[in-house]
Amino acid sequence: EVQVVESGGGLVQPGGSLRLSCAASGFTVSSNFMSWVRQAPGRGLEWVSVIHSGGSTYYADSVKGRFTISRHNSENTLYLQMNSLRAEDTAVYYCARHTTVSYYYGLDVWGQGTTVTVSS
Amino acid sequence: QSALTQPASVSGSPGQSIAISCTGTSSDVGSYNLVSWYQQHPGKAPRLMIYEGSKRPSGVSDRFSASKSGNTASLTISGLQAEDEADYYCCSYAGSNTWVFGGGTKLTVL
């Protein structure tokens, strides 16, 4: 079964750091485009970051310079390192796979999300 | 990277058809036929309903269809059913390897 499972969320103080993980099964993370998408409480979805199959990485302006997306090929796992966290980073963070037909068409596999709360 | 504009809410009775609009700019929706649509039930993960502007993934009902004109994309749901009640989000490729979502639309089935 093709699926992804996020973990690593929690409560962190402003200015702190957290690393999210996304373990994939049924497909190979390194052969696909993978994104992180977040959803603040009661708000809409916001695209955060993507890593290409070739390893190139891109970020939304709101997290550029603070977040780093990466992957561990042998563990088939995607990561999101989040530094200098702010209250506005509070959200459910989803890991998602881009469609394999073409990586630009949409996000077809989503996890259940992991909750990050930034508060003192 | 401004969010695409969607109506906050739409409603319809069972059996009716509704449409949800998604307005962007010439830098995103207007430049690419790369709009996708997602359904999200409360407390659940989003589900891909439409990709590449108008195509349905396997398992998605043909009651869901989508189109685009200029900078505005639209999702149409025909033959409304109770289980269609959910939040719906559009998403567009915005160039330079970035994507932008809409603010979301809450669909109520009366």
Account of the 3D structure:
The complex is a heterodimer of chains A (120) and B (110). Chain A is built from no helices and eleven strands. In chain A, the strands form two sheets. In chain A, strands 2, 4, 5, 6, 9, 10 and 11 form a seven-stranded mixed beta sheet that branches. Chain A has a four-stranded antiparallel beta sheet with strand order 1-3-8-7, with no helix packed on it. In chain A, strand 9 (91-98) and strand 10 (107-110) form a beta hairpin. Chain A is globular, with a radius of gyration of 13 Å. Chain A has strands spanning 3-7, 10-12, 18-25, 34-39, 45-51, 57-59, 67-72, 77-82, 91-98, 107-110, 114-118. Chain A is mainly beta and 120 residues long. Chain B has strands spanning 9-12, 18-23, 35-40, 47-50, 64-69, 72-77, 86-93, 99-101, 105-109. The model of chain B has no long low-confidence stretch (mean pLDDT 96). Chain B is globular. Chain B is mainly beta. In chain B, 0% of the residues lie in helices and 44% in strands. In chain B, strand 5 (64-69) and strand 6 (72-77) form a beta hairpin. Classes of the chains: A mainly beta (120), B mainly beta (110). The interface between A and B is medium-sized, with 27 and 29 residues.
Q: What low-confidence regions of chain B span 5 or more consecutive residues with pLDDT below 50?
A: none
Tell me the series of helices and strands of chain B, N- to C-terminal: EEEEEEEEE
Looking at the chains present, what oligomeric state does this protein adopt? heterodimer
Distance between the first and last residues' Cα of chain A: 40 Å
The radius of gyration computed from the alpha-carbon positions of chain A, rounded to a whole number of angstroms, is 13 Å
- Proportion of beta-strand residues of chain A: over 45%
Mean pLDDT across residues of chain A: 96
Give the % helix of chain B.
under 10%
Structural class of chain B: mainly beta
Largest sheet of chain B: 6 strands, mixed
